[in-house]
């Protein structure tokens, strides 16, 4: 029975953060035939239930295309009236009611302030009801008087609504205050009805003509008995006033008393039909909006019921009434046509609110400022070009390039920021900087990536266990510890990146404000006594415009986006010249910025970034407090944000363009803040990795470095993406595109040799000998340095000098089938090895220079990104593409490869067992995911309900399990409390750097912990009807809702818990 009248609506997750239950909604035919809005209004107790029903009914009408606006009464076709209530319909044909309807229509048309839309709905409803219940169709020969006169007012000639609708009223006499400025104080010379109305019925009875020739009486519902009673009151009041005070020429009234009323005459010259036509114009906002439909199609008068007019808003109701009036009287039809042919008064202009006027003024000022700025820039560019043409040798190519660069810089407009607090627009300056509203939060999402595509399952038995050894965070932490054990500490901290666990992620809503306006805003929040869901003392606030949660402001670097203007700059410099320029720029010591408001804010936001995460995630040096820690942390912040954006894009750049996160990215401003602070740290030129990458070292220098007790980290052990960020952030800003491309080309050569070394280790001994011999035969070729076969042969021959290949290969490192390493598989391996670096580099180029990210297929990603980065040579042929063709060696290829391999050979002589462990392997990290949950909730409940806690060895009263790592914890358990932190809060800091996702076993709901706050997220287990069973009170079988769990995982990966969920509260470390 239920399925016959309703459809089941599956549970969904609202953007506001609340979880909806599964519910049944009426079918379309039930809404159309059975739903009665009037009955709902009369029978429902609470107003909110009425509004909910009407909203759903309106949504159905809009979805079915029956109405576009909000429907007006009667909402749908009226049912037949019961015969017992027929007598009530006679009230609709009463002159007094017609006077009321005319008065209300006139006041609504004149924008009377006390008349709402609901009043207009009722007026139109009564008029339409009167037309439908007319006794019989009106005769055009003679107007019938529908009963005995009981009202002596001279507004209308009779009681028939059909004839009264076309009756014109010229003047009315009203009672108004003496101070009111009225149009006429004396009766006009002629107060007859409109000539057209009088001439339309020449055989009208003389009594009616005499009645129409007079002026309409009091503009109110005053019958003769009320007028007599008012005269008595006025006479008694006049006598009392004369007894109290003598007569004077001026009438005295006490302050605040009701002013004396006097009679005035107003010119109307309207009928109900004319008022309805003008009301249609007003509702539509267009002049002459109503056009009689029967002029184009006479069938509209023949059809009794037109589906077009069954539902609609006010304009549809007016059209329906006019059509019914024309259908019942040919005179009404003719008068409506005449009214529409007349020139209607223009629609009064739309009133512009002060807020809209302020927005329009701001846009106009902004447009004028941009026009003036463009004019000045064009004039400056013209003058500069003229000067350079006369003062310099235009034949010189260097002069032409310099002129193009200068002209390009002049034409780039300065970035303009809109403050959402004060509303002013302007550039960010040193003294009054603007900033982006940002949220800084610690993140361990990247650390949960695993090197397998199969998701880990939540343990539901003693045999099932989860070990964190294969997570990204564990692998990189072990690698850093191993490097620090064998190599110099400062060199190790420049060879890897941190932030996989406890990294700082910066995201913005995209709105900007002045720093001084933000300080005033924060001060007002501190003085606000209203209970807030955030801590102002910790710098938390909501964006003044979009109300998105934030906790800092990222200053915008002043300037005209020079990086983007230098994008098109071409250079004829050689690779060696660019390498030398990069080295010279890096050796320039960064100067501490002057004490300006901008520099102070940059220092302040850098402190906020450092304080966002815990100290254990920032201190990796053997010497506590070492500046190497800060150096490592700063470029790792950039790496974390780039890697997370790559995760948000799906792990690759095949889709291209700007993702949702990319459109609101703040990486450009973040890079300026990080670069300003990293320039303060100098790298010893003797140990600068740039020299090892671009120069051949002398024998005595290499021996000196190798003889140290703790040598530098070999170049082939260094992470290419980390070196990229170090090189760029230590360069003076803004960075030129030619220098950026030079750094990429140099680092790609290192990355490619790392791939060849890792490949040689994976090969069996027979494969190595085969490739070494085949490559040696091609070494004399002209393009040998761009052939992976020749380069692989040289790498294997160099590493054979040490003990790298002497260890027995395990099954994990060697492949059983020698045929697996064919040229195609090797080329695929090399491309997959280099792709993570190309993705990070392309994202960095996109944010620094505004380069577009083209879309492509997965198998074309390497080629497209290499071409986008400028690695492919100009004479590139897609048919003969090889990854080695992207190489551009700064020095002789085989010499620099021998130098890099000699470092591994030297290390292998001392520690042969660690050589292969520290080699950089192919990155096969899957996207971060939550644990996979079983289909039936009973499986979880039966295992964890009586499970003992591993800390206190007791069965917790409120057990919970972490959905990120599967750890079993005690909720609110005092037995596991450590240093005033309960176990759930402590685990959220250790596992998610302050973010925890826990499933409460006894309640089937999920709780989110974010820093010092928490919220109930909802449940991902629902019953067969899509409803939650919180606290398991109903005992229904619960099943996983994959859609909800996917939403939960997406919010965790995108770091949007703070923005989507609104019901937050402090946990006081008690969870």
UniProtKB/TrEMBL annotation:
Q: Where is this region: Disordered?
A: 180-215
Q: A GO CC term?
A: ubiquitin ligase complex
**What is catalysed by this protein?**
S-ubiquitinyl-[E2 ubiquitin-conjugating enzyme]-L-cysteine + [acceptor protein]-L-lysine = [E2 ubiquitin-conjugating enzyme]-L-cysteine + N(6)-ubiquitinyl-[acceptor protein]-L-lysine
Its annotated pathway reads: Protein modification; protein ubiquitination
UniProt biased composition (Polar residues): 189-202
A Pfam family matched by this chain, by name?
Answer: PRT6_C
Q: Name one GO molecular function term.
A: zinc ion binding
Q: Does the keyword Transferase apply?
A: yes
Respond yes or no to whether keyword Cell inner membrane is given for this record. no
Give the E.C. number(s).
2.3.2.27
PROSITE patterns referenced in this protein's UniProt entry, alphabetically: ZF_RING_2 (PS50089)
Domain RING-type: from-to ranges: 492-547
Keywords of the record: Metal-binding, Transferase, Ubl conjugation pathway, Zinc, Zinc-finger
**Biological process terms in GO annotation:** protein ubiquitination; ubiquitin-dependent protein catabolic process via the N-end rule pathway
**Role summary:** Ubiquitin ligase protein which is a component of the N-end rule pathway. Recognizes and binds to proteins bearing specific N-terminal residues that are destabilizing according to the N-end rule, leading to their ubiquitination and subsequent degradation.
Say which family it is in. Belongs to the E3 ubiquitin-protein ligase UBR1-like family.
- Name the record gives this protein: E3 ubiquitin-protein ligase
Source species, please?
A: Podarcis lilfordi (Lilford's wall lizard)
At the highest ranks, the source species' classification is: Eukaryota, Metazoa, Chordata, Craniata, Vertebrata
């Amino acid at each position: 029975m239920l399925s016959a009248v309703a459809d089941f609506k599956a549970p969904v997750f609202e953007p506001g953060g609340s979880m909806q239950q599964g519910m049944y909604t009426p079918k379309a035919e039930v809404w159309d035939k059975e739903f009665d809005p009037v009955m709902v209004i009369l029978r429902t107790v609470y107003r909110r239930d009425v509004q909910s029903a009407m909203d759903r009914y309106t949504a159905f009408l809009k979805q079915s295309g029956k109405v576009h606006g909000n429907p007006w009464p009667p909402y749908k076709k009226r049912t037949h009236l019961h015969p017992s209530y027929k007598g009530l319909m006679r009230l609709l044909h009463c002159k007094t009611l017609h006077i009321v309807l005319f008065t209300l229509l006139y006041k609504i048309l004149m924008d009377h302030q006390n008349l709402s839309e609901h009043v207009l709905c009722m007026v139109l409803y009564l008029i339409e009801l009167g037309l439908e219940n007319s006794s019989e169709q009106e005769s055009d020969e003679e107007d019938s008087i529908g009963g005995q006169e009981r009202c002596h007012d001279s507004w209308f000639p009779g009681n028939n609504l059909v004839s009264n609708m076309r009756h014109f009223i010229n003047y009315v006499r009203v009672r108004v205050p003496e101070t009111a400025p009225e149009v006429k104080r004396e009766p006009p010379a002629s107060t007859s009805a409109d000539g057209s109305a009088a001439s339309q019925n020449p055989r009208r009875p003389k009594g009616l003509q005499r009645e129409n020739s007079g002026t309409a009486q009091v503009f109110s519902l005053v019958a003769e008995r009320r007028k007599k009673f008012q005269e008595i009151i006025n006479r008694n009041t006049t006598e009392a006033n004369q007894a109290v005070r003598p007569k004077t020429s001026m009438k005295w009234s006490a302050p605040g008393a009701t002013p004396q009323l006097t009679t005035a005459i107003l010119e109307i010259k309207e009928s109900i039909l004319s008022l309805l036509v003008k009301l249609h114009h007003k509702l539509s906002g267009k002049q002459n909006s109503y056009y009689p439909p029967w002029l184009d199609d006479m069938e509209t008068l023949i059809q009794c019921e037109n589906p077009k007019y069954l539902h609609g808003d006010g304009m549809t109701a007016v059209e329906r009434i006019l059509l019914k009036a024309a259908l019942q009287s040919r005179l009404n039809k003719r008068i409506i046509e005449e009214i529409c042919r007349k020139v209607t008064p223009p629609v009064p202009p739309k009133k512009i609110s002060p807020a809209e006027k302020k927005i329009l003024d701001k846009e106009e000022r902004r447009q004028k400022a941009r026009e003036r700025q463009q004019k000045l820039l064009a004039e400056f560019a013209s003058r500069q070009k003229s000067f350079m043409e006369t003062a310099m040798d235009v034949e010189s190519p260097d002069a032409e390039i310099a002129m193009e660069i200068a002209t390009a810089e002049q034409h780039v407009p300065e970035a303009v920021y809109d403050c959402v607090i004060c509303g002013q627009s302007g550039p960010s300056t040193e003294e009054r900087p603007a900033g982006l509203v940002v949220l800084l939060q610690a993140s361990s999402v990247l650390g949960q990536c695993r090197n397998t595509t199969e998701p880990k399952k939540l343990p539901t038995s003693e045999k099932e266990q989860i070990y964190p050894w294969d997570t990204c965070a564990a692998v990189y932490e072990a690698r850093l510890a191993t490097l620090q054990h064998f190599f110099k500490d400062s060199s190790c901290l420049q060879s890897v990146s941190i932030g996989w666990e406890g990294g700082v992620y910066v995201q913005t809503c995209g709105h900007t404000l002045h720093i001084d306006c933000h300080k005033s805003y924060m001060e007002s929040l501190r003085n606000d006594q209203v209970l807030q869901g955030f801590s102002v003392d910790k710098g938390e606030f909501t964006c003044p415009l979009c109300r998105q949660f934030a906790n800092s402001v990222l200053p915008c670097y002043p300037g005209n986006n020079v990086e983007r203007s230098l994008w098109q700059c071409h250079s004829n410099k050689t690779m060696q010249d660019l390498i030398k320029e990069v080295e010279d720029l890096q050796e320039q010591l960064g100067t501490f910025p002057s004490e300006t408001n901008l520099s102070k804010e940059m220092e302040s936001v850098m402190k906020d970034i450092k304080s966002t995460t815990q100290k254990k995630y920032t201190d990796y040096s053997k010497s506590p407090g070492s500046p190497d820690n800060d150096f490592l942390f700063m470029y790792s912040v950039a790496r974390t944000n780039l890697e997370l954006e790559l995760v948000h894009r799906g792990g690759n750049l095949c889709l291209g363009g700007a993702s949702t996160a990319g459109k609101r990215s703040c990486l450009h401003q973040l890079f300026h803040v990080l670069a300003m602070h990293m320039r303060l740290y100098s790298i010893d030129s003797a140990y600068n990795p740039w020299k090892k990458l671009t120069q051949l070292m002398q024998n005595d220098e290499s021996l000196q470095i190798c003889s140290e007790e703790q040598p530098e980290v070999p170049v082939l052990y260094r992470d290419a993406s980390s070196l990229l960020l170090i090189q760029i952030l230590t360069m003076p800003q803004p960075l030129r595109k030619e220098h950026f491309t030079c750094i990429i080309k140099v680092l790609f050569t290192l990355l490619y040799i790392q791939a060849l070394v890792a490949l040689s280790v994976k090969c069996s001994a027979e494969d190595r000998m085969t490739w070494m011999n085949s490559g040696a035969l091609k070494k004399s070729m002209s393009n040998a340095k761009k052939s992976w076969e020749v380069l692989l042969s040289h790498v294997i021959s160099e590493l054979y000098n040490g003990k790298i290949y002497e260890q027995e290969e395990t099954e994990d490192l060697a492949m059983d089938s020698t045929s697996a390493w064919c040229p195609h598989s090797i080329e695929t391996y090399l491309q997959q090895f280099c792709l993570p670096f190309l993705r990070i580099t392309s994202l960095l180029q996109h944010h620094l220079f505004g380069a577009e990210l083209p879309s492509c297929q997965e198998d074309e990603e390497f080629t497209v990104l290499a071409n986008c980065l400028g690695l492919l040579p100009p004479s590139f042929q897609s048919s003969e593409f090889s990854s080695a063709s992207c190489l551009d060696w700064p020095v002789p290829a085989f010499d620099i490869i021998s130098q890099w391999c000699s470092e591994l050979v030297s290390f292998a002589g001392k520690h042969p067992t660690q050589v292969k462990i520290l080699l950089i392997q192919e990155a096969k990290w899957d996207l971060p995911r939550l644990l996979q949950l079983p289909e039936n909730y009973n499986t979880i409940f039966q295992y964890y309900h009586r499970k003992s806690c591993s800390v206190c060895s007791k069965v917790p009263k409120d057990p919970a399990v972490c959905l990120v790592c599967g750890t079993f914890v005690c909720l609110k358990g005092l037995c596991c409390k450590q240093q005033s932190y309960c176990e759930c809060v402590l685990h959220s800091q250790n596992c998610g750097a302050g973010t925890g996702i826990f499933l409460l076993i006894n309640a089937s709901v999920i709780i989110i912990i974010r820093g010092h706050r928490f919220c109930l997220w909802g449940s991902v287990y629902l019953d067969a009807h899509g409803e939650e069973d919180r606290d398991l009170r109903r005992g229904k079988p619960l099943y996983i809702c994959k859609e909800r769990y996917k939403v939960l995982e997406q919010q965790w990966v995108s770091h949007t818990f703070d923005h989507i969920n609104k019901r937050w509260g402090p946990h006081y470390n008690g969870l």
